[in-house]
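Protocol step 4 of 6: record predicted structures for both targets in the notebook before any analysis. Target 1:
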Amino acid sequence: MINLTDSAINAVRNAITTSDKPVDGLRIMVEAGGCAGLRYNMGLVSGSEPEDTVIEREGVRVLVDHKSLEYLEGTTIDFVIALEGSGFTFENPNAKSSCGCGKSFA
């Protein structure tokens, strides 16, 4: 299961309501790349794929493909506002190491 904090849910909901295109949910993926070998990728999408796992919380749909789910199981996603900038953070119990930016892991 992937967990989203209330702050993350509110940020996604705000992005969905201000989008000028129809949005079905937020896709979260893990891709090769980044400083540590794997990186998180997120984006609003207009539809799901047949093999997606769909997580719904308070009306916000999160779509995760089968491969990414293996890396994201148990992850908590938060949205933080800080002096350095705002953005999503990932607390991933499956990550053995991560880079300084927090967007890449191994």
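Target 2:
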Amino acid sequence: MKEVDVVRSLAALAQEVRLRVFRALVVAGKEGLTPGVILDKLGMTPALLSFHLKELVQAGLVTQERQGRNLIYRASFDAMNELLGYLTENCCAGEGCLTSDATACHC
């Protein structure tokens, strides 16, 4: 992952509403959520949600797919894992402390 992409991703997540939206999409998993469901879960205005979803999509952290009349938003788990990999690449003084199923470093 390029440093510019890391900065873009972290900047997108460095805002409370976007972080809440992204976490809701992570919890939803591969099925994703429609904007209406996100609005119900997080209680915000449609315009505010639209703005923040656009920012997350532009950062590559969220994907958007049209299914009939609905838009489905999903967390991009590949992008999330690339970001986490970049952030933990040299943890533990460069030792390989993370396994493929690890959820945290054990330094």
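Step 5 preliminary note on target 2. The radius of gyration is 15 Å. The CA atoms of residues 19 and 102 lie 22 Å apart.
Proceed to step 6 after PI sign-off.
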